[in-house]
Write a structure and sequence with these properties.
Length: 177
Amino acid sequence: MPGPRRTKNHRPESLTKQNIMSYVKIWVHAVWGTKYRHPILEKSIRITLFQHIREYAKKHDIHIDFINGVEDHVHCLLLLNADLPLSKVLNLIKGESSHWANKEKIISQKFEWADEYYAASVSDSAVKTVREYIRNQEKHHHKVTFEEEYQKFLDEQSKENNTPPELNHDNIEYYQL
């Protein structure tokens, strides 16, 4: 049986540029809150809102693996694809969901997300742990406030990203915020 047809540059046709696709697999744990951290996301509202966010994301080729939260913030485990940067993904999700929530009047007041968000990459080996952490948000926040949790995330990221001076071979100055 003959193999793949070869092109001028002697590569099999199946490997020519027009047939190669970008492969991106970046897990992200994203966290964002309600405007001014107002505790407006009652459980029934969260269920409706998260279902809508999932449906919207699916229609726009945004893969949300897991989403959950409490009264004043949301945790989301998602996969980035090659077409959309993280900032665009979160702007789409937050912007569209707040627009939808106001149009549907799922709460009596104007619904808004805070502008800021937290996002960190997640290794394949940590996906299950992060998924369980997101699943248990209500239980978790009986012990820890959002502010304490957020500061812990920042502290952990700061520790992971520090480069000791003896390993700084590029003579780049590193600053800890």
